[in-house]
Amino acid sequence: MPRNSVCKALAAMAAALVALSACDENTVYNSYRPVGVWERTDTVKFAVPQAKAEGTYTTEVGLRINARYPFTGICIIVDRRIMPGDIRHSDTLNCKLIDKRGNALGHGLSNYQYLFATSQCRLKKGDSLFVNVRHHMKRETLPGLEDIGIKVTRR
User: Does Signal count among this protein's keywords (predicted)?
Assistant: First the structure.
């Protein structure tokens, strides 16, 4: 196959991949922050843009871990604050990451990705959502956590 045809074919496949992996229309926010070693005193903060429409929204916490993560699970505290109005809600998530046989329950090969739902919240048009995520493990530092993320979806 001529070089020009190969380039065109690769470009077409890349465009198709981007189109297939694009967020669905209900996802209003999806962002990750790098962590590396997560200290107990570290809080990962997210500021979700103002809601464009009133409705019920679901917040999910995303984790990306590698083989250096030493536990089969993690306890995460997710604090949400809706402004204006200063409405606060906190969820404690006990997330199972590895099964009894040592198999990762997430998706991936050497790094694994997980998504854990929190409770839903009601937002009015123009409301802003602030989400803080921290771990609540006995160990002060947690190695092997690559990224922490938040995904907000309108139901």
Answer: yes
